[in-house]
Structure formats: C-alpha cells, structure tokens
Amino acid sequence: MLIPIPRVCDGVFDCSDLSDECMCSHPLPVCGAIQLRNINLHCDVGQMSCGDRKCIARHQVCDGVVDCMDYRDERSDEVGCVGRFYCGTVGGKMVSIKDVYVCDQIFHCVDQSDEMNCTDDNRFYCVNKDPLFVQSYQVMNNRLDCSDGSDECPDDLTERYMGMVSSNYDIIASPVLRVFLWIFGIIATVGNLAVIVGELRSIPASLRKGYSASLRTNHILVLNLAISDLIMGVYLIVLGSMGIKYGGKFCAHAKHWMGSGTCQALGVMVFVSTETSVMIMVTLTAFRLYAVYKPLKSKFRPPVGVALSIVSFIWIISIVAALIPAMPPLQRFFTDTVLMESPFFRHGDVSFAIAKTFVLKLLTFDPAAVNLTTVQVNMARTATSWDDLESIKFATKHGVDLQDMQYYSGFYNANSVCTPKLFVTSQETGWAYPIVTAAFNFTAFVFVASSYVIIYVKARRYAMHFDISSPRVMLQHRAMQRKIIRLIVTDFCCWVPISITVFVRFSGIEVPDIMYAVSAVVLLPLNSALNPILYSDFVDGIQTKVHRKFAESASSLYRRSRTLSLRPSITVETNL
C-alpha cells in the first residue's frame, strides 16, 4: 500500500501494519504494545497481545472500551493513549472518551464524570445530582427541575428571597430563634390554657350576688385575653411543626409554602391574636382606671352585658381587619410581587414597578402589538395598581397575558413565618395598613403605661392621706408596684421596638433583616406568653404560696433549733 509522504508520521495510522507511524524517529507510545513483526506466534502483525494469549486489533487499542482483562489496552501507562479523558469509574465498559466529547452535555461515561466541573456553558449542578445538571435558563424558573429543588435555591441568587427570616434549609434560619419559637409556643399554649380553665371555674361564682361588677368584668376580659393569646401559642406550635416538616429542604418549597392557604391562615391568626390582645389590655386598663377614680360606682358598673358587648365588638373588629388583606378581591392591593409565566422574566417573580415598566415598553416599542391606542399607553404610564395593569387589553406575538398572574408576596406571605408585613416604605403597596396598626399599638402602649402609673400614684396618695402604714398595706403596695412594673416593661419590650422600627423603615431608612425574625419569633409572642402571668393571679398566687412555705419552714426550723438549745439544761436539772 502506498500513501503520500505528508501522511507519514502524522499521528494517524494509515498502513495496516502501522509502519507509517511506528517506524518514525518519535513513534507513538502505542507502538510499543502493537505487534509490528510476526515474532509472537499467537498474534498477527498489527495486533496487540493482552498477555493471556488473547490478541486484539489496533483499532481496539485506546478506543475507550476494555478488551483485555487487565485493562492494558486502555491504560495510559501501558499504551500511552493521548487525547483521551478517563472516566472516574473504571468498572464500566467505557473507561475513556475522546477529549472533544467532554462537557458536550451528553453523558458518555457511566459515572457521568465527563460532564462534571464544566463551567463554560453556565450550567447549574443539582445538589443531589438527580439529574446531574440543568440548563442555566431553568434556574429559579419556579419549577423543580432538580429532584431536590436546588435549582430554585442557588446560593448566589436566593439571598433576596430567603434573607429576611429563613435560609435555603429552614423556615427560620437562626437556631436560637427556633429554640425561642418552641419556648414561647409551649409557654403561651400551656399558660393560657391554664388561665382559661381557671377563669371558666371562677366566672360562675363571680356572677352570684356579693361580687362587684368590676370583678366580673375583669374575669370576662382576662378569659378573652387568654383566648386571644392562646391563638398566638397555636400559631407558634404550627409554625414550629412546619419548620420540622421542611427542615433541610425549605427553599425548594418556599414559594409553595408562602403562597399557601395555611400561611395565609397563620398570618390572619397572628393579626387577630395581637390586635385582640392589645384592645382587651386597653379595655382592662380603662376599667381598672375607672375603678380607682370611681370605686363605689365600679361595684355596679359596667354590667355584664356591657362587658360582653365590648368583648364581642373587639373580636369582630380584629377578625374583619385581619381578613381584609386576605380577601381575594382586596388581596391585590397588598401585593408587591406576582408569579408570572413569561419568557421575559427569568425568575417569574415580578414586582409591580418592573411589570409596569415592562408593559409600557412593550406597548411603546413592540411593532407586533395590535389594537393599540394612545389611551392604553397612557393607562400603562399612570397605572398605580395591579388592577390598572390588568385592565389594559392588548395582544402581541409574544403571548404576554397579564390576566394569568398568581399573587405571591402580599400582606401575610412576604416572609416565611407568615406574619403581617410590618416594615414598609411609601413606595410599597398597602403601606397604610401596617402604619395605622403600628400607630394604634404604640398609642395603646402609651395609654396602658400612663394609666398604670396613675393607678399606682393614686393608690399611694390614698394610703398617705389616711396614714395607712400597716405592714399588710405596705406589702400590698409593693406587690402592686412590682405588678405595674412588669406590665409596663413587657408592653414596652413588645410594642415600642416594633413600632419604632416600623416608623424608621417608613421614613426610608434600611432596617436589618434580623429585625423581621426577632419581631416575628420574639417580640410579637412576648406578651402572649407573659400575659397569663401578668394579668391573672398566677404570679401572685405562686408568690403567696412560696412566702407561706418559706415562713412555715423558717418557723419550723426556729422551733427545732430552740428545742435543741434547751435540751442540755433540762438534762442537768434532771441529774441534780
């Protein structure tokens, strides 16, 4: 066989006996393993011996397929295969492939190692490698393309979604806050249940003759306060349970969770619990203040019917106010972000400002848009709500449909713990709701705190005026002082930080993300966990029992010590 000179020693075998490449001054490494002359009785010229009397043809050497039992036909140290990528697993049939097949998005190696660590095409590797990778356009497209959902949770892109409270793995990122969640949840649930049972036993007795109206009203209000705070305890327990359910995999289910009816229901529970609790505390304080200034009239006022009417009104107001942001016709007025199926939005999460800009540009610059009028363009330019955008009827070749939107980030599902959206700016939708709520709660705190200060001062002046200085009266004054301090401090710790933070954020100052988590897990549940202790006789009863036990123990110890000290003298007298 004759071949042109340029094809000699060019790295490609053309002659059947390999002489065009193996007789060169610098032969290929594989030439050392190929039988060039018929010196081996069991292998023909151009074949390779596997060492076990098996011979293979030259095209089977370095072809990626194992033909020799000891892998010598594919081992680089034996035959010097060049331009090959060796797969990570040598147990498979294909042990190496040509370099050109690496990172071509087709699996050639059994272990898929030829498609690992490829960075040029911006692919995304699934955490659990099922599948090994997805395309870059599939990342954060609101579909779980990776079986573990990790394509929706890349570490470098999810901070704006998960940064406030949660992480890629947990509903509440901080382990410390997760502990507080369960502590407050258990205390609020157990404590308020205990108060409810106690008040239900006390109310029938208080309705009999001989009990003042103020005492009856106090029992009714404390009972309803415990019920409202119990709702917060249930919320904390449910949230903690959901945290266990989604533990280690939350990001993949984050949007589903925050857009779910369960999250909306939890948010409504938080609003009802907090606002009912605030209004009942204000009512309790007002009646106690009335009893201080009108002690005689407070024995007969307010009647039980009036107290029940006030409580019913409080519950109705709280429930209606909580349901308004969750009602489908009104929900859009509290929504900042929607999920929209469109090729123009990579992540599917579209804020109102972005959607408005997009619609305006589409109507203005897209020549394929039909049935356009100046009125429609002006409507897009002056739109201030999702209703305004949805009312614009137009069609383009891109098939953009503003009617197909899922409301996602609203008043109750702006964060993973489903609390009302507290910290807003004037540019956000529905900003008036949290501002009015925060102003009301702050005003309520000022009223409660100032009222209890007035109650204490009034009681102290009364004692000084009548020169009441008996030990029993002084103990009562000190007990009242401690109780008032506890009430004011706990209300201050709960509402003042939240209210101030709301006003600071509304003024345009950035608020650390941790404040949302602390507010949701610590500050809001604080009163619910402590109110059973503060507004019932729970603490006072415990203190009374402790003091009685301590006094009894001290008295018993004193008598025993006196008996022991007298015993020797009695013995001496007996001997005499």
From TrEMBL:
<protein>
    <recommendedName>
        <fullName>G-protein coupled receptors family 1 profile domain-containing protein</fullName>
    </recommendedName>
</protein>
<keyword id="KW-1133">Transmembrane helix</keyword>
<keyword id="KW-0472">Membrane</keyword>
<dbReference type="Pfam" id="PF00001">
    <property type="entry name" value="7tm_1"/>
</dbReference>
<keyword id="KW-0677">Repeat</keyword>
<keyword id="KW-1015">Disulfide bond</keyword>
<feature type="transmembrane region" description="Helical">
    <location>
        <begin position="484"/>
        <end position="508"/>
    </location>
</feature>
<feature type="transmembrane region" description="Helical">
    <location>
        <begin position="303"/>
        <end position="324"/>
    </location>
</feature>
<feature type="transmembrane region" description="Helical">
    <location>
        <begin position="431"/>
        <end position="457"/>
    </location>
</feature>
<feature type="transmembrane region" description="Helical">
    <location>
        <begin position="179"/>
        <end position="200"/>
    </location>
</feature>
<dbReference type="InterPro" id="IPR036055">
    <property type="entry name" value="LDL_receptor-like_sf"/>
</dbReference>
<feature type="disulfide bond">
    <location>
        <begin position="43"/>
        <end position="55"/>
    </location>
</feature>
<feature type="disulfide bond">
    <location>
        <begin position="50"/>
        <end position="68"/>
    </location>
</feature>
<feature type="transmembrane region" description="Helical">
    <location>
        <begin position="264"/>
        <end position="291"/>
    </location>
</feature>
<dbReference type="GO" id="GO:0007189">
    <property type="term" value="P:adenylate cyclase-activating G protein-coupled receptor signaling pathway"/>
</dbReference>
<feature type="domain" description="G-protein coupled receptors family 1 profile">
    <location>
        <begin position="191"/>
        <end position="535"/>
    </location>
</feature>
<dbReference type="GO" id="GO:0009755">
    <property type="term" value="P:hormone-mediated signaling pathway"/>
</dbReference>
<feature type="transmembrane region" description="Helical">
    <location>
        <begin position="514"/>
        <end position="535"/>
    </location>
</feature>
<dbReference type="GO" id="GO:0008528">
    <property type="term" value="F:G protein-coupled peptide receptor activity"/>
</dbReference>
<keyword id="KW-0812">Transmembrane</keyword>
<dbReference type="GO" id="GO:0005886">
    <property type="term" value="C:plasma membrane"/>
</dbReference>
<dbReference type="InterPro" id="IPR017452">
    <property type="entry name" value="GPCR_Rhodpsn_7TM"/>
</dbReference>
<feature type="transmembrane region" description="Helical">
    <location>
        <begin position="221"/>
        <end position="244"/>
    </location>
</feature>
<dbReference type="InterPro" id="IPR000276">
    <property type="entry name" value="GPCR_Rhodpsn"/>
</dbReference>
<dbReference type="InterPro" id="IPR002172">
    <property type="entry name" value="LDrepeatLR_classA_rpt"/>
</dbReference>
<keyword id="KW-0433">Leucine-rich repeat</keyword>
<dbReference type="Pfam" id="PF00057">
    <property type="entry name" value="Ldl_recept_a"/>
</dbReference>
